[in-house]
Amino acid sequence: MMRQYELVERVRAYTPDVDEDRLNRAYVFTVQMHGTQKRASGDPYFSHPVEVAGLMTDLKMDEDTIITALLHDTVEDTLTSIEDIEKRFGPEVARLVDGVTKLSKIEAQTEDERAAENLRKFLLAISDDIRVLLVKLADRLHNMRTLHFIKSPEKRRRIAKETMDIYAPLAERIGMYEYMREMQLLAFEQLEPAAYQTITGRLKQIREKADVEIDQINQTIAWEMEQAGLKIKISGREKHPYSIWKKMQERHVAFEQLTDINAFRVITETTEDCYRALGVLHRRWQMVPGRFKDFISTPKRNGYKSIHTTIMFAKNMRVEVQIRSAEMHRNSEHGFAAHWAYKQSDKPDGQAGWLRDLIEILETSQDAEDILENTRMAMYQDRIFAFTPKGALHQLPKGSTIVDFAYAVHTDLGDKTVGGKVNGRHVPLRTQLRNGDMVEILKSKAQEPQQAWMNFVTTGKARAAIRRHVRHKERDELVVIGRKLYEEIAARMPGKIGKKALTAAVTRLKLEDEDELMHRIGLGRINDRALMEALVPGFDADDIHVDFPGQGSAISIRGLTPGVGYHLGECCHPIPGDRIVGLRLAGQPVEVHTIECDRLAGGADADWVDLSWGQGSDGASARLRVIIHNRPGTLGEIAGIFGYHKANIIHLRMTARDVEFHTFEVDLEVHDLQHLMRIISALRASEAVATADRVYD
After folding, report:
1. What pTM does this model have?
2. In the chain, where are the structural domains located?
3. How many CB atoms lie within 10 A of CB 70?
4. What is the DSSP letter of 633?
5. CA 694: distance to chain centroid?
6. Whether 76 is catalytic
7. What distance lies between CA 361 and its chain's CA centroid?
8. How far apart are CA 230 and CA 272, in angstroms?
9. pLDDT at 621
10. Which of 20, 43, 76, 533 does the annotation list as catalytic?
11. In the CATH hierarchy, which fold is given to the domain comprising 620-694?
12. What percentage of the chain has pLDDT greater than the value 70?
């Protein structure tokens, strides 16, 4: 464990004017507060914050950050309060300690909710000051180094998984690859112990045999660079065991099939020398196509810069080489911490682009599953680069589409997207982008996010924005349905129900406002009896005999969106023109069925609501069963009938086949019942068709 004077000397080495007395007081304070507390290893607990502070000195962090590291567990694990810290060490340290403090006391119903709430508050804290993240990463790294002392295997695995899912990706996103690699390695050992032992064992065997070979490659590359007049430093490095395992999983290959276990790093003096060194390598040895990446020209989102290439060395040996300047190398190891100097009047804002996206996701996501899914998407997916027509560069996860790109540019642009051009050519919205694509977004003020986009977008930012819009729209439409249901229920009661009674009912039901009442009625969370009792206390709903209302009093669903305010039954596929009934199940949007639907005849446990499509309703899908003669061209003929009547085929599947006939079920997008009947008539008139009928199940 680092002693008090050693810590002070380490800080003085890069900050000669440091306030030694303040550092000493912080060291003594953490020792006194943690007192006789012990870690799982048996060491005094205060050894942990001291080691975390030592990690901060390795990064040459400022005085406030070192003190924060010393005090980061005092609020959670001792009787110290944030007010105590502010009084002794100032508001800046108090704010940082508050940001780093573990949030173990959060009460939530599930593990996901607790993890999501921790992640939400933690990311909001680091958005205010990135130093919070640096201390937290050092805290987690030291805990991982001592993880083996914890006796419970389940607890070790839980901590390791959290590290792999959240902290290692966060370290990568701010370019702290040294932290990321060590955390991944330590977590990998706990999560996949058999794979860890196998890979590290094989690497040890290779290391014992390959030392001479690695020295030869080093010397050969160094000699070529010297002949070209370049001053470089070169080192061979072994691939990370976790990255080897991950590559084996992704490529479905055995260890023996990997050809790039060892890699080499060439450190130059300047950026210009990086490209000169690249030229030397490619002139002397053949490069492997598809294995060249220039992260100097297009840096990673975390600021990482380097050139990666793979060359064919002697005996067809593949050798991976990374080329970077000395400054790039410092930044690649410690990321933001390597080049952010914390001075009294010069503090970083912590608002890296990826962090802004995460904060936006947190602000728009409403439940634990969304937060965890979308933030993990934003943190650790492989990236591609695409450009706007003006040349602005945007990084996106692999598999991103036109819609993902639009949301990456701006949320409002994503909401209004109607189409896109890639490299000047019109493409569908679900088109996946490739490295170097130039993307132009076409928009319309009348457009709004579509639920269907969720089937193909990949970025957390896009998914969060679409879900937010759909939820808001769903609430608005359920309020409309609830208000119509309320009016129908109120009309059944003796006497006119006025505004005063409605306001009193909201109060009696302990709801926020009238819209919340209508929303709950629409969701079926307040039944007729409870509503009547709230409107008129003491009213006996059993005194009213209510027949099922006729179509004349039906509630119109015109203007509402299928799948949002209500769902069209998958069992009967109702379309405009059908006689329809709604089922109101607690906590769900209204379910719309045709009056002939077997689900209604089966006595579904739900309230019935008489519905109508409303004048001008248009568009829904219907299902047909078509039996055609088994001869060439018949399927094309019925497809031609659909096309002639301007009906889109949503889904087509063969359900039966014999010598004479083929049976197909077809889901068609039609305008209304009249449109569907014209299509059925045309099918029945065709010589290719034996029978054509609508299917209700």
Report:
1. 0.53
2. 4-191, 196-338, 352-448, 469-535, 563-613, 620-694
3. 28
4. T
5. 41
6. yes
7. 8
8. 11
9. 86
10. 76
11. Alpha-Beta Plaits (3.30.70)
12. 80
pLDDT at residue 77 is higher than 70: yes
Residues 6+ apart with CB under 8 A from 70: 26, 27, 29, 30, 49, 50, 52, 53
Q: Which two tokens stand for residue 1?
A: 């464990």
- For 352-448, CATH number? 3.10.20.30
Instruction: Provide CB contacts within 8 A for 85, sequence distance 6+.
Output: 71, 74, 75, 93, 94, 97
Looking at residue 384, its pLDDT comes to 72
d(CA 453, CA 412): 15
Q: What share of the chain is helix, strand, coil (3-state, %, to 5)?
A: 50, 20, 30
Does the pLDDT of residue 199 top 90, yes or no? no
Would you place residue 125 in the very low, low, confident or very high pLDDT band (cuts 50, 70, 90)? low
Residue 321: strand pairing partners: 264, 309
pLDDT at 184 over 90: yes
Sheet with 566-568: list strands edge to edge.
555-556, 607-612, 580-584, 590-594, 566-568
**Nearest-CA neighbor of 266 among 318, 319, 313, 213?**
319
Helix (H) or strand (E) holding 669: strand 661-670
Is the domain defined by 196-338 classed in CATH 3.30.930.10? no
**Measuring CA to CA, which residue among 492, 512, 494, 514 is closest to residue 503?**
514
Q: Under 8 Å CB-to-CB from 436, ≥6 apart: which residues? A: 385, 386, 387
The runs of H, that is alpha helices, within 146-176 are 153-162, 168-173
How far is Cα 230 from Cα 242, in angstroms, rounded to an integer?
34
Active site includes 9? no
Residue 21 has pLDDT above 70, yes or no: yes
In this predicted structure, what is the pLDDT of residue 337? 54
Query: Within 13 Å and on the Cβ side, how many CA atoms surround 588?
Result: 13
Whether 89 shows a pLDDT value over 90: the answer reads yes
4-191 is classed in which CATH architecture? Orthogonal Bundle (1.10)
* Single-letter residue type at 236: G
- Pairing outcome for strands 607-612 and 555-556: parallel
| Catalytic residue of the set 77, 162, 488, 637 | 77
Contact 178, 334 (CB under 8 A): yes
Cα separation, 568 vs 577, whole angstroms: 14
**C-alpha–C-alpha distance, residues 23 and 396, integer Å:** 43
Give the residues across from 590 on adjacent strands.
566
Residue 192 φ/ψ, nearest 5 degrees: -130, 70
Q: Is pLDDT at 245 greater than 70 in this prediction? A: yes
